[in-house]
Amino acid sequence: MIKQILNRADSFVDQNKRFVGALAFLYATSLATRSLKKVLGFLAGQFIPGYNLTQRYGKGSYAAISACTDGIGKGFALELARRGFNLVMMIRNAKKGEVLAEEIRKTINKDIDIRIVEIDFQNIQNPGVIEAIVDQLKGLDISILVNNVGKLLHGSFEIQNFTEINNLISMNCGAQALLTRGLISQLLQRKQKSAIINLSSLSCNQPMVGYAMYGASKSFNDYFSRSLSEEYKGRLDILSVRPGWVTTPMTDGINEKFFEITAEQCASNVLRQLGRTNLTFGHYKHQITAYFSELVIDILNNDSRKKLQNSNKSQ
Ligand SMILES: NC(=O)c1ccc[n+]([C@@H]2O[C@H](COP(=O)([O-])OP(=O)(O)OC[C@H]3O[C@@H](n4cnc5c(N)ncnc54)[C@H](OP(=O)(O)O)[C@@H]3O)[C@@H](O)[C@H]2O)c1
């Protein structure tokens, strides 16, 4: 049977040499173009200098960041303060926010204006909560919204409880959609450009064992972000950020962290690309991780599946 198929294929190629040659040439060209695009995209992301952000978005304007007393959010707060923006911290612990605000005034800019909006993002979908936040921010010249807050759930899906799942949906999807909806009119009405940075994750590159809820929510972040970037092209700079491992409280207990970077490295590499693209892995290490993860994902998934099954049995 196989021999017959191969013989037929041979005679087809013999009779249609020019056509088969043309097809092979087209295929090779499209592969080469795709690879070249990837390489050029990588080089552009890493070597083209970023915009002067206060020039682009407005001197004296505010960057509003969710969950920025620690982790990647704090990285963005420090980097945006360094670039001359005032800050709105949307955080759950006002005291911790005051300490960070003091640190920023002492080390970065003594004249910076920092507003604190208290919010536990687990409650963002409760009636009246988003309206109260939007009310507090009315009239403030917000030029950059960083939708950073997020929660990690890892392990067997069957042992994750309803509260954990609901909280993840609120923090990873609800917060991003509602804050964007709440502030988008303000951002669109400004004379200068405005920007939205949405934290997704490299974990949504491929389906990963043990990360079903997290990966799915990060795919939501990525699609939401890139869809809006198409809808508001030319009017808003909207950037989906898909970092790999970053040293933060979220990743504290995880041992194997390949190509890990600091929160400030993450933020500064993202800000360099703001306004130039609608999707970034941020740091070049994470762009490389993204490429290699595609090649080894099946091995990783097989290994994680065995580990999860064994840990379920031993419980
Ligand atoms: N870390 C990574 O390797 C990584 C990689 C890819 C993508 N990401 C994404 O990047 C974003 C930030 O990640 P991260 O690692 O910085 O997270 P994180 O370490 O959990 O962030 C800590 C910050 O989140 C605040 N926070 C936690 N729960 C909150 C709640 N219910 N309401 C309000 N604030 C809350 C903390 O406040 P307190 O200071 O009060 O505790 C702190 O400011 C997430 O969307 C995540 O999915 C992270």
TrEMBL record:
Task: Fetch the CDD domains from UniProt.
Answer: 17beta-HSD1_like_SDR_c
Is Magnesium included in the keywords of this UniProt record? no
Q: Name one Pfam family in it.
A: adh_short
Q: Which domain of life is it from?
A: Eukaryota
GO MF terms here are: oxidoreductase activity
Could you list this entry's UniProt keywords, alphabetically sorted: Oxidoreductase
Is-annotated flag, keyword Oxidoreductase?
yes
PANTHER family, alphabetized: RH59310P
The similarity annotation says: Belongs to the short-chain dehydrogenases/reductases (SDR) family.
Name used for this protein in its record: Oxidoreductase, short chain dehydrogenase/reductase family protein
